Amino acid sequence: MSDSLDHVARIQAQWRQERPELDVSPQGVIGRLHRLAGFLSEELAVVYQRFGLGEGDFDVLAALRRAGAPFERAPGELASFTMVTTGAITKRIDRLERAGLVSRRVSESDGRARVVGLTDAGRQLIDQAFTEHMKNEHRLLSVLSEPDAKELERLLAGWLKYFEG
């Protein structure tokens, strides 16, 4: 086997040897996407950690910041925007509240409901962290030409639409 093959290509070659009757070509896309996701997650986490955040913390703060002034959302909204359970979101909110980055208050429209909002410190932190996050994402994409990056985005958006509906 050639050393010029990437990890996925080596796995495919092994499967072709062992199970030549199977078409292992999907591994070429799915296996590489899976491996890239792992590498990208590690690279993105470096920036989160620099700001004392985990990926989940970053997601909550970013969801609040994207809400626009007054930078508030209901916990259920945060759970749906960050694709985690309400139990998981509660733990994240608790941690961020202890750090002084978010606060909770009673909803003005429903006295039984709670609203989570960014504190001034939380807004400053997510603004700084998001700026660095975007620089990092630009760096990660810089290995692709601009046309290739746009084509990859187009292809991935179409594929993702299939799953998201």
TrEMBL record:
KW DNA-binding (keyword) present: yes
Matches recorded under Gene3D superfamilies: Winged helix-like DNA-binding domain superfamily/Winged helix DNA-binding domain (1.10.10.10)
GO molecular function, one term: DNA binding
Pfam family, one: MarR_2
HTH marR-type domain sequence ranges: 26-161
Matches recorded under InterPro entries: ArsR-like_HTH, HTH_MarR-typ, Tscrpt_reg_MarR-type_CS, WH-like_DNA-bd_sf, WH_DNA-bd_sf
Superkingdom, natural source: Bacteria
Keywords: DNA-binding, Transcription, Transcription regulation
Record has Transcription as a keyword: yes
PANTHER family: TRANSCRIPTIONAL REGULATOR, MARR, TRANSCRIPTIONAL REPRESSOR OF EMRAB OPERON
UniProt-recorded name of the protein: Transcriptional regulator
